[in-house]
Amino acid sequence: MRKNLLKSKMSLHEDNNKTLAHKLKITLSAFSRKINGTSNFTIEEMKFIRKEYELSDVEFLDIFLIINLLFGKIIFKVKEKMEVMEGNNNKTIKILIGVIIGLSAIILFSGIFYILNMQGKIAKLETEQEERLKRQMESQNMASVQTMQSAQTQQQSNINRKEETGTRSQQSQTITSNGINITKEEGVYIRVNFNTFFGSNEVCHNIGRNHVNFPAIYSGNRPDLSAALLRFIKKSDSSFVNNSNLSDEDNVMNWYTANCVRYNAIGSENSKTLRYFYNYVSNF
């Protein structure tokens, strides 16, 4: 404490050590120790002195060195806090460095794993693409072979049909030139025996009648009749399957041979027209 400042205040109020000790209700020796700084005034004693001498806040704090004490404590606390913070900062920095190193390692290993994984996927995709291209090439080769075989088969079929058509045409021309046109008597004879010579089916009647009455159909010169007969077959027989690779006449005669009379000996013997028709039917 500041002894001289307190002494000056005591003098202003006409006090000495003895009188102030009496007012504080302590012994003179106890007061002497406190004013000399050997011991400290209690809070109650300091309050009494402040009130007795009407000390201002600054004077009170200055006499008893409370300002210095507080300032010293504050400095000490600040210093202590700074040391703690510095220690904590060091720890924090170390932790942050450790975290950064750990994250860097994780990122590095993740990158390596990603690269290896992508390389594996790329290799797998390349292999799959090669296999897919290989399969496509094999499919294209097979399709080409099948197309060539189909074209060859179709070509051979066309050749065969042309040969058959040519044969029938030659036969038709030969017989027509020999007088294939039906006579009136033959017409009556055939009309009375439709079921016997062609079959009981009305479609069979129509096919037979049109062929014996219009011999030009044999040589393909009456495609209108062949087309009309084919429509009649389609309308009458729901199970009929038309072969688009064949002519209308070929489709008609194929159906006839499967469903009608192919040959009748009596009719063939009695009518040259029927004989020619049965000979024509035998080509299918």
**Terminal CA distance:** 145 Å
Using the CA coordinates, give the radius of gyration.
67 Å
Global morphology: rod-shaped
Percentage of residues in strands: under 5%
Number of domains: 3
Proportion of helical residues: over 70%
The count of DSSP E runs of length 2 or more, i.e. the number of strands, is 0
Q: How many separate helices?
A: 13
Helix/strand/pairing class, anyone? mainly alpha
Poorly predicted parts: 169-179
List the helices and strands in order. HHHHHHHHHHHHH
Rounded mean pLDDT is 81
Summarize the main sheet: none
Report on this structure:
Residues 133-177 are annotated as: Disordered. The chain has 3 domains: 3-64, 434 Repressor (Amino-terminal Domain); 94-178; 179-281, no CATH class. α2 (17-24) crosses α3 (28-35) and α10 (223-236) packs across α11. By secondary structure, it is mostly helical. The chain is built from 13 helices and no strands.
In short:
Helix content is 78%, strand content 0%.
Give a topology summary.
Layout: H1 3-12, H2 17-24, H3 28-35, H4 43-52, H5 57-63, H6 66-177, H7 184-192, H8 194-197, H9 202-213, H10 223-236, H11 248-259, H12 265-270, H13 272-281
Features:
13 helices; 434 Repressor (Amino-terminal Domain); rod-shaped; 3 domains; 284 residues; mainly alpha
